[in-house]
Amino acid sequence: MRVLAPLLLASALTACSMAPKYVRPELPVPQSWPVGDAYLRQSEAALPSVTYRDIFRDARLQQLIDQALANNRNLRATVENIAAARAQYRIQRAELFPQIDAGGTTTRREIGASAAGGNFAVGGTTYQATIGVSAFELDLFGRNRSLTDAALARYYGQEAAARAVRLTLTGDVAGAWLTYAADQSLLKLAEDTAAAARRSVSLTQARVSGGVAPRTDLRQAEQILATAEANIASQRTALAQDVNALQLLVGAPIDRALLPPPIEEAAKTVAELPAGLDSRILLRRPDVVQAEYELRASNAEIGAARAALFPTISLTGLFSFASTALSSLLEADSLTKTATGNIAYPIFRAGAGRAGVEQASALQRAALATYEGTIQTAFREVADALARRGTISEELAANERFATAAADTYRLSEARYRGGIDTFLTTLDAQRSLYAAQQSVLQTRLVRATNLVTLYRTLGGDSQLDVEATGAVPAPQPVGRQ
Fold first, then answer.
1. Cβ-based neighbours of 270, under 8 Å, separated by 6 or more
2. pLDDT in tens, the chain (482 residues)
């Protein structure tokens, strides 16, 4: 044990790190969101941690999201990527500790009488057992520690990537669910319009038969009916495709009882999400977290490249037991102890060592640019969503007023036509205008609801992530066997 003790002590030494001290870069975006007529003014100073159940409050949608999180194949792939990254970290961390090997051999030797110089053959059996540490590298300059830190950062980055997939998947399911609701309402509108058009065709047919209206009135009425019937067929196709999209996201057939009500009701189940004034909340977006951990990994790899410029010191220790009798193999007289130290330093590498440092530094700068670009993209996405959020209510109110006026115009035009005051063309234009206005209201309701989904997704609030001054901290993970 006196031979192995220095090796075990050496493995516990704290290596000096040559990695640059990590300092989170300043945000390459304004401190606050844009303000003005197109943006909502919020009083919150920070984004509260939320879950999708706080935003999407319909139990049917929540159940579909739960199923998607359990079955979606893309999410399963990210889980396996996390497992691989965790294993890679544990492999790299093992380099900080000595590897202890044990072995045993049995040798049987026989020498013929002539070779032995006598009248009898000579033979014997030798037993040998060894245990020791072979070429354990002392991490005095922190190369293995830096590589371990890089592997840990990439493992945490994979966790963030999984959260990004989870966030996107949740938003996609909510968006597909709301799209089905809107298409269902559009189908109902097309069916109602077709029913009204059939009544108009019947009325016009009677007036043509009575000689009080030209055939052009009948053909014009039939145009409205044909348009509505074509829209009915189109909306039925859209509903079928919406179900297919939901099934792909969920990863399994869905219960039709979980499909949404019309958009007028479904939109009310999506709650508001406060954006806050401080753009630092973007640091909690999973894609930003992943980019920051990649930056941390690149920073640590600079330390590994710098440490590679210094000598490599390794130790070897060996206990060896050898005996001709198995019963006496482990006795003190059979023990041989060996300890060896080795130092190696390449005196000529044609600049490869310094080139390795330059390469690691260039990759770190590239990771920094990617990190800053990710934040800028996130800022733009949130700002766009806030701009849409700030005006969509006004747009919806205006469209509803337009639809109300169009409905009244159609009623008046139809009454004037029946009274023989106006031509059927006036009624036809009023009916087309009403139909388009009602479609616009439904589509704007969908835009308003999906804007809330977009805001939830772009802000990236995740109750499983905390933000500290040194960076995002993943949720604690259970410690597995090493």
1. 55, 56, 57, 174, 178, 449, 452, 453
2. 454 455 445 444 545 676 677 767 776 655 554 544 443 333 333 445 677 888 899 999 999 999 998 888 887 888 888 888 888 888 888 887 888 888 878 877 766 555 555 555 555 677 777 787 777 777 778 888 888 888 888 888 888 888 888 888 999 999 999 999 999 999 999 999 999 889 888 888 888 888 777 888 888 888 889 999 999 999 999 999 999 999 999 999 999 999 999 999 999 999 887 645 466 677 778 888 889 899 999 998 888 888 888 788 887 877 776 666 566 656 666 667 787 778 888 888 888 888 988 998 999 899 999 998 988 888 888 888 888 888 999 999 999 999 999 999 999 988 887 777 877 788 888 988 999 999 999 999 999 999 999 988 888 764 533 434 344 444 444 333 33
Cα separation, 361 vs 223, whole angstroms:
69
0.90 surpassed by pTM: no
Nearest in space to 146 (alpha carbons), one of 19, 324, 273: 19
Query: What are the structural domains, with CATH classification, of the chain?
Result: 14-105+140-305+359-473 (1.20.1600.10)
Residue positions counted in the chain = 482
CB 39 within 8 A of CB 386: yes
- Dist. CA 247–CA 64, nearest whole Å: 9
CA atoms of 66 and 78, how far apart (whole Å):
17
* Residue the block writes with tokens 């670009």: 373
Q: Which two tokens stand for residue 402?
A: 């337009």
Tokens representing residue 306 in the block: 């710098």
| Amino acid in position 256 | R
Residue 20 sits at the vertex; the CA angle it makes with 18 and 22, to the nearest 5 degrees, is 135
